[in-house]
Amino acid sequence: MNKIFCIALFILFPLVSGAQTRVTRDEAEQAADVACQPDDSGLLACVPVPVPPPPLTNDPSIQPLPGIPLSMESFSNTTINRPNIPGFDPIPATSDTGSVEIGWDLNYGIPVQYWEIWDNGQLRYRGRQFTQRAIASNSGLEGPAFSVRTLSMQSGIYTLTLVPGRHELTVNLCSGGARSEPLCARHEAVTWVGGEDKSSPGKPQLESLPSVNTGEPLEVRWNVWWGQPGQYWQLLDNDAVIYESRKFSPSERAVQSGSLRIQSPSPEAHDLRVNLCSANVCVASDSTRVSVLLPGPRPPTLQVQSSLTPQGEWLVSWRLPYSYGTGPPDSWQLRNPAADQVLVAKQSVSQCPAVSSKDQEDVFAGYCGDALLPAVNAPAATMVRVCTGTDCFDSRSVPLVRRATNRPRSSPGQ
After folding, report:
1. Between β-strands 218-224 and 256-262, what pairing exists: parallel, antiparallel or unpaired?
2. Most buried of 148, 242, 376, 395, CB within 10 angstroms?
3. What residues contact 5, with CB distance under 8 A and at least 6 apart?
4. Do the beta carbons of residue 114 and residue 174 sit within 8 Å?
5. Neighbour tally for 283: CB within 10 Å
């Protein structure tokens, strides 16, 4: 979720004051003091949030007294830059209103320099807007002669607008470390927006899997033989969700069935299980261990999509599923394969969770990135090159052709 490799605190991405700017996921991650809302084109519509005035400081002429050297045992200074974990307002597990208010109070420790909200791996808010909220008082000073009001040291409030579906929310409260790296206290929550059925589905059962695999594709199949059907299902590997889908396999006997073919599973032990879910209510299958002894064929196939935005730009996005086991890449390029030309080069790679939607019914969790190309100068086809150091591999070419519909076009072989 929302992790970025090879990135400092953040690089300012210019936004016009007071105006709405449509940016890619990657561009939003580099911005400061911004609030974003996903739009139908696959971009984020972002507006700048006001920058608070600088805090009051002492007169420069006021200086601390010099320290007194002591002859006794001394201890080295210890610097703590990470904020404490604040008290968070409860985030509801379900919401029928389409919005969630996120609030927190920090009562002691290191003040927060900025805070941010991530929704399904996309930055939705990053800013330095703070307040102070009243907290419970245990002073016991009550009555007409006393008026006691206890305030938090620092608080934050933001109302997040959400589309129907499941939302993995992450709230980071951050301060800069000694080397300008962000040190953040993190809070995570999951909420479901919409009035769909939230009853518990039946328990899925995995079909037999081999206990040993030598790098060949792994077929995962499951069935529900009794109970209620679910709205979507997840495949978990060692307790981490690596795939989510709203697609189901046809079956004449089972209540519900699903399947997934894992190409090139990584050489390690995999504890696999399936979650069948309705809203945020999930029922897990029993887990099965598969030991992969040899790596599968390389290079892995990158998933690449392209779509034409209403603004006349090609949005090209890619994803490398974690299940390939290649390790985190650190850079990527968007290239013109016909001219062997670099169109976009980026030195950061994001991580995207597996959260399906009505527009994207099956999603792998993995490393990802996106970029915009002006349609007027775009080549007939493009490809993506992803690198870990000097070890790189390429996607297949994806045609950039105007179509009557604006549905994403994937590279072949996915």
Report:
1. antiparallel
2. 395
3. 328, 329, 330, 348, 349
4. yes
5. 19
Q: How far apart (Å, rounded) are the C-alpha atoms in residues 194 and 167?
A: 11
Q: Which two tokens stand for residue 122?
A: 């996309």
CA 238 from chain centre, in angstroms, equals 19
Query: What pLDDT is attached to residue 347?
Result: 92
Share of the chain above pLDDT 70, in %: 83
Return all residues near 179 (Cβ < 8 A) that are at least 6 apart. Answer: none
* Neighbour-count burial of 242, counting CB atoms closer than 10 A to its CB (0-12 exposed, 13-18 middle, 19+ buried): buried
Exposed/middle/buried for residue 149 (C-beta within 10 Å: 0-12, 13-18, 19+): exposed
- The predicted-structure confidence for 38-91, as pLDDT tens digits, reads as follows 988 889 999 999 888 877 778 888 888 887 776 666 666 656 677 888 999 999
Q: What is the pLDDT of residue 178?
A: 62
Report the alpha-carbon distance of residue 124 to residue 120 in Å, rounded.
Answer: 10
HSE-CB for 190 with a 13 A CA cutoff: 9
Instruction: Find the angle CA(166)-CA(167)-CA(170) to the nearest 5 degrees.
Output: 155
DSSP string of 195-235, one letter each residue: ----PPPPPPEEPP--SEE-SS-EEEEEEE-SS---SEEEE
SS (H, E, C) 255-304: CEEEEEEECCCCCCEEEEEEEEEECCEEEECCCEEEEECCCCCCCCCCEE
Query: Sorting pLDDT into bands at 50, 70 and 90, what band is 24?
Result: very high
Reduce the DSSP state of residue 29 to 3 states and report it.
helix
Q: Is the pLDDT of residue 280 over 70?
A: yes
The tokens describing 409, both together, are: 């076009």
Strands (E), 64-161: 87-88, 94-95, 99-106, 114-119, 122-127, 134-135, 150-151, 154-161
Structure confidence at residue 215 (pLDDT):
84
Residue type at 32 in one-letter notation: A
The secondary structure element, H or E, covering residue 22 is strand 21-23
Strand 269-278 versus strand 288-292 pairing type: antiparallel
State phi, psi for 86 to the nearest 5 degrees: -80, 175
Q: How far apart are CA 414 and CA 401, in angstroms?
A: 19
